[in-house]
Amino acid sequence: MSKDYYKILGVEKSASQDEIKKAFRKLAHKYHPDKPDGDEEKFKEVNEAFQVVGNEEKRKQYDQFGSTFDQQGGFGGGASWDDFMRAARGGGGGFQNVNFDFGGIDLGDLFGDMFGFGGRSRGRSRNRGSDIQVDIQLDFKEAVFGTEKEIRLTKNNNCDVCTGSGVEPGSKMNKCDTCKGQGQVRRVQQTILGAMQSVANCPDCGGQGEIPEKSCKHCGGDGRVRSESKYSVKIPAGINNGEAIRLAGKGESAGINGNPGDLYVRVHVKEDPKFKRQGFDIYTEEHISYSQAVLGDKIEIETLDGDKKLVIPAGTQSHQQFKLKNLGVPRLNRSGRGDQYVKVIVDVPKRVSRKAKKLLSELGNEIK
Predict the structure, then answer these.
(1) Range list of β-strands (E), the chain
(2) Which residue, 23, 121, 178, 238, could crosslink 330 as a Cys pair with Cβ 3.0–4.6 Å?
(3) Counting beta carbons within 10 angstroms of the beta carbon of residue 226, is it exposed (0 to 12), middle (13 to 18) or buried (19 or more)?
(4) Is the pLDDT of residue 95 over 50?
(5) What are 148-157's pLDDT values in tens digits?
(6) In this predicted model, what pLDDT tens digit does every residue of 170-221 receive, in sequence order?
(7) Please, what's the b/e burial string for 142-164 (b: 16 or more CB within 10 A of its CB; e: otherwise)?
(8) Which one-letter DSSP state was computed for residue 330?
(9) What average pLDDT is seen over the chain?
(10) Is the pLDDT assigned to residue 127 strictly greater than 50?
(11) What angle do CA 58, 63, 67 make, to 5 degrees?
């Protein structure tokens, strides 16, 4: 069945080429599969329609014979959807490296605008080093009150001889002959999609626009070497198990003309036999005798801040909970602390003496 490409694009059959291009741009923005709410099937359908009616010659044939005029399909020349998407993404390298001139629309500009890339005027890209994660273990109270830990790791660091430039000290930089100091090279290739212009970092200077007269002997011109690093990491009070601290720029070096990655220090907190943490609150249990529960008492309990006195009022029930304000965990990166909740468990003796039984019996009669 013949497809109605005008209906797919939402335009009249009498629409001008500019109106068709405008409609295509709007729908491509809406349905692009790389967007969270995109629709690949509709995007494919819109592109197929535009590649026919967006081309004046193909549009004439379509108006005369319908969509079956080209048995190769709307992409022309036997190109598949995968071919189109590979081209649209620049062979997997992202829109920032490819321009498309198809039917008067630069698809590189279109997709670049959609995802924040530049279409025609792009600056030199900077490589970024890899992020690193290291794991450290903390005692319970170290996580509560904060501490400082030293970590050591072996990774790629900037060369300490050339400071990451890749240039032998005392040597000068010369303009790259290949890119004429621009750092990028452009190539235009005729494809089934039309003229495709690719923009990439210069292979000779790596995007710098300059080439060292002499490369650094220590790092071979790479600007980085593998070496040990040592960092003192401040652990903030209140950090919890599984949380991480980010040290910006302390990850792997990217070498010349690059930015280092980040270092993430992930925290693993040992459990404490006495204290149980929930958020910024602390939960503990205390055992008291039956007589303490009935008559009341003052007991000594353990808190994060040391031993404190807790008043047990007369008539306390087993599993009753008492709240001690501001004796919990310091709130991470905020002021104040959580609370401590003390659950009182009344121990009932399994065996009692005759005298105790008599007293308890008398007590039972008194409180009926």
Answers:
(1) 98-102, 105-106, 127-128, 132-138, 147-158, 173-175, 184-191, 194-201, 210-212, 224-235, 244-247, 258-259, 263-269, 276-278, 281-289, 297-303, 306-312, 320-324, 340-347
(2) 238
(3) exposed
(4) no
(5) 999 999 999 9
(6) 888 889 988 988 888 887 777 655 667 778 888 888 778 888 889 999 998 8
(7) bbbebbebebeeebbbbbeebeb
(8) B
(9) 82
(10) yes
(11) 70
**Contact in structure between 235 and 148 (CB atoms under 8 Å):** yes
- At residue 185, what are phi and psi to the nearest 5 degrees? -125, 145
What pLDDT shows up at residue 1? 53
Which residue shows structure tokens 């235009």?
A: 188
Tokens 């404190």 found at = 308
- Written as one string, the DSSP assignment of 162-213 is TTTS-BPTTPPEEE-TTTTTSSEEEEEEEETTEEEEEEEE-TTTTTSSEEES
Contacts of 28-36 with C-beta under 8 Å, sequence gap 24+, read 28/110, 28/111, 28/114, 29/110, 29/114, 32/111, 32/114, 34/111, 34/114, 34/115, 35/114
How large is the average pLDDT for residues 107-116? 47
On whether the CB atoms of residues 113 and 119 are closer than 8 A, the answer is yes
Q: Which residues contact 45 (CB under 8 A, 6 or more apart)?
A: 8
pLDDT of 114: 45
Q: Which tokens in the block code for residue 134?
A: 């290291």
Q: Which residue has the tokens 């309990």?
A: 301
User: What's the average model confidence in pLDDT over 290-305?
Assistant: 93
